[in-house]
Amino acid sequence: MFNRIRRLRQVAAIASISSLVAGCGVLSSDSTEEAGPIVVGTTAAPSTLDPAAAWDSSWELFRNIYQTLLSYPAGASEPEPDAAESCQFTDNSNMKYKCELREGLKFSDGHALDAKAVKHSIDRIREINVNGGPAGLLGSLDRVQVLNDREVVFHLNKADATFPFVLATPAMSIVDPEDYPADKLREDNSIVGSGPYTLESYDEGKEAELLKNETYQGYAERKNDAVTIRYFQDSPTMVGALRDKELDVAIRGLDADDIVDLQADDKDELQLIEGSGTEINYLVFNPKDPMAGKSAVRKAIAQLVDRPAIAHKVYKDTVEPLYSMVPKGLTGHTTGFFDDYGDPSATKARDILTEAGISAPVPLEFWYTSDRYGSATKGEFEELKSQLEESGLFKITLKSRPWKTYVTGYQNGEYPVFGRGWFPDFPDADNFIAPFVGKQNALGTPYVTPKITETLLPSSRAQSDRANVVKDFEDAQRILVDDARLLPLWQGRQYVAASSEISGAERALDPSTIMLVGELYRKTSW
């Protein structure tokens, strides 16, 4: 396909996942109908069902119901054709990207899926332009050209070797022009897609019922006929449902206490699959806030935060401290925050504030989501509050909201300081810098930094061989450390808990850790 980015295979460590506890015997997926649908639990409920609005956990559902031109078959580390039959750059400058669709594609409502539908789907993302939405992923796109029913060309405004990875994100899901308006979001709780499954029913925040899409054409093998996804507010309730056999799989939002308990469980009824990951967790400072907008306040907090304590006390060492927005395992990772600040020091933090003429204690509100990342988030923010207040330099007020309203709050600039997690759109350092900077970004908080957006990112995207972009990303991270607008806290591992009767869980996460429910099936013999 696009052989210019083969080196990206080296950074997709999350695609290889090993089981800690596994059943034994001969496995088969010949029939799953008698036992009913596979039931999956997660704390990552969608915030919307319209791809034009989502740059968040909604992608978990989208990947399984909508279709993209390119996607990730299980075990792949770079995108491969899905709705497309083939895709490639047609020039040497990485500025024209052409895709040819599979023949005879149809949406679940029977309408034809053609090149015009692809153009409509991409154009409406930019036309609707949701704040904090996926339009920010399309910064290098100039226009979409339809050549005929099956051929579409993406003309870029600058070289971008990562553009195929953008097309593979669920944000670029192909939608039916007859069901999705060009200038506004679809408002009902329905989906018309062409993906591996159809959405048979949806109870917002509670449950989604998926059935195999009989007209699907793509790479997915689908080893089951139906999947029910149940959405939980917290990990203990979800794991309790798994232990009570109300769930077959728990795939997102497992708390540290539950992971430790599952690791220690010597029963044969459950299995825990662990893999390396590139999920990160970080703080965002609102530059318009009277206090969070001050560089000295941000740097004093950076000097006080004890990441190892958070990893150990709150997360029981199921995560590790992170000192860069680019996680370990990706080309370009650095340890800039540790290099600049070293170990936590109240004395150094006080000096930073004093030199800036800022009196202590500094009052600040810290916001977190009460349900998106698991119930341990509350403990994390209580630990942050304790660390900052023990220094005598800060007075922290903690506040929280459920994810759906939390998103609206940070998009509207309501929070002085707020927590975010990030699961990569694709496995490249670009995706841990570009989404957070510029006037339009995934945080809804403009971060104008011309050196990164106009020089370093374009320079790195012109490089097909990603081993040649280290210096660009090191320079970009130097700017992020100096500004301290984003404060990395920890890097996570990936955990999936499942009944011992379930197979395929080790293959059910793609390189961006999005769930591929078609890989799950029941063992029918031992």
Notable traits:
six-stranded mixed β-sheet; eight-stranded mixed β-sheet; 526 residues; alpha+beta; D-Maltodextrin-Binding Protein, domain 2; 24% helix; globular
Helical stretch tally:
13
Sketch the major β-sheet: 8 strands, mixed
Average pLDDT over all residues: 89
- Please state roughly what percent of the residues sit in beta strands, choosing from under 5%, 5-15%, 15-25%, 25-35%, 35-45% or over 45%: 15-25%
Compute the CA-based radius of gyration: 23 Å
Strand order of the largest sheet: 1-13-20-12-2-11-10-9
Q: Structural class, please?
A: alpha+beta
Q: What fold name stands as the CATH topology of the largest domain?
A: D-Maltodextrin-Binding Protein, domain 2
Which CATH-level-2 architecture of the largest domain?
A: 3-Layer(aba) Sandwich
What is the terminal-to-terminal distance?
40 Å
Fourth-tier CATH superfamily name of the largest domain: Periplasmic binding protein-like II
List how many beta strands DSSP finds: 22
Uncertain regions spanning at least 5 consecutive residues: 1-33
- CATH class division of the largest domain: Alpha Beta
* Overall domain count: 2
